[in-house]
Amino acid sequence: PKTLRLILGDQLNYNHSWFKTTHSNITYVLMEMRQETDYVKHHIQKIVGFFKAMRHFATHLKEREHKVIYLKINDKNNLQSLDENLSALLKENNFEKFEYQLPDEYRLDQQLKDFCKKLKIGTEASTTEHFLTSRKELEDFYQGKNQLTMEYFYRYMRKKYNILMLNDKDPEGGKWNFDKSNRKKWKGKPEIPHERGFRKDASKLLEEIEKAGIESMGSIEAQNFNWPESRQDALSVLNYFCENLLVHFGDFQDAMHTEQAYLFHSRLSFALNTKMLHPLEVIEKVTEHWRLNKEHIDISQAEGFIRQILGWREYMRGIYWREMPGYRRSNRLRNQNKLPEFYWNGDTKMNCLHHSIKQSLETAYAHHIQRLMITGNFALLTNTHPDYVDTWYLGVYMDAIEWAEITNTRGMSQFADGGLVATKPYISSGSYINKMSNYCKDCHYNVNKKTEEDACPFNSLYWNFLDEKKEFLKDNNRMGMMMSLLEKKSAKELKELKNRAQKVIKNPERF
Ligand code: FAD
Ligand code: SF4
């Protein structure tokens, strides 16, 4: 039958079996739509990155003799919504069948299901051939269990794909997890090789986006667009990581520094989440590189990296499909505050927040610990409603697609699911931030003070949080030690801490 096949913006899988052969009766469609640019206010680099990658993908298909319809954002016949565009195309061209790949977002999954119900022609949904688990696999794995500890799922995945295994049950290096040996602060050494930059021109596309009137956040250098737009680009980011960064990845995974946004992180999440790279090829490439360079790359670096992709990434996706759509409304700690205005401009005297936010707005990137222990930590300690937190994280990062964003933000970072993903709230006082970064050195606030005018706000916020939320935390084993320290505080000390914290919570902009 004459078939229309939809490719969504995050379905740029160059090796998908759809493209193995060409058929004169199959047409592919990709579309840039206001529906997708406007469901949240995105970072400008994210909009440019998606459009660039989609356009490149369409060209790639056309060069291989596939029939492709591409709707640009300002095309006259672009009706700007998925349903309307598809309906018009199906009708105009008398297609007899409609096919799509299963979306990774609940929102689009529902939309396409509803759309297909109304169609009078045949429809078919197939897999994106990207993930290493099916949507329901995690749910089945944890059936009957109370706790969804990631580590067990990760071990199951190691065995399932035979990654870093000696045989079918024993891990290489004698341990499943080398996490303990990971945490180091970066003090200018080891040297970080010069960044892998693309310096692409985005000026024409920026004009188109501006003409369309799309609202965005963050900034971009028009002549210096730095993200991969093709599979080839993405592969070069992967190679660069293996050659230059893997060697210290695990050691400095949690480190933060004012002069180094990326440190030894791979920056592969955009290429992975748009499916330009397959998770297994990334894992295999890293494993192979480690094997060939065992004398100077420790297994802990490779294992630490592989765990992020084979473990955490698949785990979060599984949680998403297990918990949606309810997850979107979860707010177990009943937080209600708005996110401070400075999340949109970095304008705060708290140096850790200033740097992490400014960097996010300038690069559409922050690494895991900046997201979790700086911006996420502050939002949680100041009782921010998870809806506001989600809106920010879903917009600001290059890799932000709801399945990965919401599970990390609501679950891992804001404890809004009551401890499904994170076994305890990820919160800290200033001392952890000082331990892992150089932020405190030049801060307006003193990280060693608790309640004075110039005391680090995180210090009082931390104890205030434990006290305010103790009903939710008292049965949590992992919080036991901190809760007993809280109890040992004198009424006077606690009162002073809480007074100071309330000032911050009531008026974060002043800090
Ligand atoms: P690296 O540190 O080099 O790690 C390698 C890869 O592992 C990443 O590219 C990513 O694909 C995967 N990975 C690592 N941690 C996670 C994780 N917790 N969940 C899923 N994949 C992981 N990641 C997203 O892809 N999209 C998001 O929208 C997103 N939002 C986040 C929000 C918060 C509050 C937090 C704490 C984390 C979030 N993460 C998100 C996870 C993680 O921070 C990013 O994947 C990572 O920073 C991307 O940078 P990188 O490619 O340099 O990662
Ligand atoms: Fe952040 Fe406090 Fe350190 Fe300042 S002193 S950078 S506010 S942790």
TrEMBL record:
This is Cryptochrome/photolyase family protein. Gene3D superfamilies: 1.25.40.80, Deoxyribodipyrimidine photolyase-related, DNA Cyclobutane Dipyrimidine Photolyase, subunit A, domain 3, HUPs. Coiled coil: none annotated. InterPro entries: Crypto/Photolyase_FAD-like_sf (IPR036134), PhrB-like (IPR007357), Rossmann-like_a/b/a_fold (IPR014729), UV-DNA_repair_photolyase (IPR052551).
